[in-house]
Amino acid sequence: xTVTLLCVVAALLVTLSNPTGDSPVFARDPQLxxxxxxxxxxxxxxxxxxxxxxxxxxxxxxxxxxxxxxLDSQPGRSFGFQLRNDxxxxxxxxxxxxxxxxxxxNWTVRIDYVDSGGNNSLLLRTTILPSYDxxxxxxxx
Length: 141
What we know:
Blueprint: H1 2-16, E1 23-24, E2 36-49, E3 67-71, E4 78-81, H2 89-105, E5 108-115, E6 120-128
Parallel strand pairs: 4-6
Antiparallel strand pairs: 1-2, 2-3, 2-5, 3-4, 5-6
């Protein structure tokens, strides 16, 4: 009975602490989880790359990132990651390539990000989601 009650309370906390509609991986309680990881899906509406160290956003909502992306499903929000000559360079370059392909072909992506509490967040992972459109072959006789 106690375990069931704890599970219900935990599920309720996750539901109530998610006003933005993002898919929570952790509950939105900064006391419990200072770094909250969330996911969002949508079409890429902006893909920006700029010089190392110039960052993005106002001082109160600044992210130290060289690549910035926006999604149609998250108006007013931006997500970014660093693209530097370090151990993460290969993975980050692959993320940039996926985002570029998604932008060019209007594909839907899923991103995982650390929610900083502001409008700008650090991007962790990028996935291109499959399209369920059915394309029939054209047969010419």
